[in-house]
Design brief:
By secondary structure, the chain is an alpha+beta fold. It is built from 5 helices and 21 strands. The protein has an 8-stranded antiparallel β-sheet. The chain has a 4-stranded antiparallel β-sheet with strand order 3-4-5-10, with no helix packed on it. Bound molecules: FE2/S2 (inorganic) cluster and fe (ii) ion.
């Protein structure tokens, strides 16, 4: 590889990938017999829980004349459209009743469906599976299942704590994701007296390897700038700490840090809401400090600061992006961002051709940068 590579001009596209699970809402905000609005990939959804507490997700649009269903009546089983009273089973969207039909009118009510989406509760979030757009014929499309369950945080003991935080960013999914994996902004964006200053910048070298639909920053070289790592160092000496960071399409970053019997895991997602809006959700699980009451608050404080710094930065960046500038990605610091775009393109290509996805990374790669 040449010592100096010309920066590559690269504009982000804003294609939002279907065929994946996405986080819709924190589970503690969705109550039984209530209806909530959410938007994923520009699809309006109405989300709720049935009488038993099982979550569901329907397209927030009546198949009759498009009325949003979120203001309808819900009895814990069926949802009634506020316009003409059609009723739908919340779990599969199947129409149950059209009140205007007379007894001799034989229309097959059960062939009509409000769009419904596979929905699961996992690690404090309601996840919704956004399938590939089906053939037109809305209103008569039966719901299809998800091929896999929603992603889970990896846990290494029975007892652990969980906490989440979220922030909305006024940028596309692509800027949200490459902002999340970008190693070079740390010393400039995440400064704090209790954390690090921009003078702590130093050269780093990390090993990466391809994994299905993504890449892994290999184990056993924890970044001294990582928050949970700093906490873990109070428990174990640096040599016994191992960490792995994975990114997989469409939007999932997982970090696992282990030190003997102690562990810390997080699953962060950047969810496309609309073309220029995304939301970051960080959910963390850990078994250290379980008995110390203030630690969840402390972790939330540290992560909250980080996420808020990222959010504010992206808010400012969004101002600049309004003018549609040319962008560039440079080696090695922006290589993960390049991989992200290549993975996305490879995924879309495999969908288009029906062939197996061709992974853009051939084998282990070492990247170097200063941060
Ligand atoms: S628009 Fe929903 S019942 Fe008519
Ligand atoms: Fe950041």
């Amino acid at each position: 590889m040449p010592e100096l590579e010309l920066p590559q001009r690269q504009a982000t596209d804003t294609v939002m990938l279907t065929g994946f699970w996405y986080r819709a809402l924190p589970a503690d905000r969705v109550h039984r017999n209530q209806l909530h609005k959410a938007t994923l990939l520009e699809i309006p959804l109405v989300i709720g829980r049935d009488r038993q507490g099982h979550p569901f997700a329907l397209r927030d649009s009546c198949p009759h004349r498009g009325m949003p269903l979120n203001s309808g009546k819900f009895d814990g089983e069926n949802l009634e459209c506020p316009y003409h009273g059609w009723q739908f089973d919340v779990h599969n969207g199947q129409c149950q009743l059209i009140p205007s039909l007379t007894t001799d009118q034989t229309m097959k009510v059960d062939r009509i469906y409000a769009g419904s989406y596979p929905c699961e509760e996992q690690d404090q979030f309601i996840w919704v599976y956004i399938s590939d757009p089906g053939p037109q014929g809305a209103g008569f499309t039966k719901p299809s299942g998800a091929p896999d369950p929603a992603p889970q945080i990896e846990k290494f003991s029975d007892k652990y704590k969980l906490a989440y935080l979220q922030a909305e960013m006024p940028v596309s999914i692509d800027h949200g994701i490459i902002g999340l994996m970008d190693p070079a902004h740390g010393p400039f964006v995440h400064q704090a007296w209790w954390w690090r200053s921009r003078h702590s910048i130093h050269e780093k070298q990390k090993n990466f390897e391809p994994i299905p639909h993504g890449f892994r920053m290999a184990s056993h070289t924890p970044s001294s700038n990582s928050a949970p790592y700093k906490l873990l160092r109070l428990y174990a000496d640096a040599d016994s700490i191992s960490t792995t960071i994975d990114f997989v399409l469409p939007n999932v970053r997982t970090e696992t840090i282990r030190a003997g019997k102690y562990w810390f895991s997080s699953l962060t997602t950047v969810t496309p809401i609309a073309r220029n809006q995304c939301r970051i959700d960080v959910v963390a699980a850990w078994n250290l400090f379980r008995w110390v009451p203030f630690v969840p608050d402390l972790l939330k404080f540290v992560f909250g600061k980080f996420v808020e710094q990222d959010r504010r930065t992206m808010e400012m960046q969004a101002e600049g992006l309004k003018h549609d500038p040319h962008l560039m990605l440079i080696d090695d610091a922006d290589r993960p961002a390049k991989w992200y775009f290549q993975l996305k393109a490879a995924y879309l290509e495999s969908k288009r051709t029906g062939r197996e996805m061709k992974h853009p990374i051939n084998g282990p790669v070492t990247l170097r940068w200063r941060s």
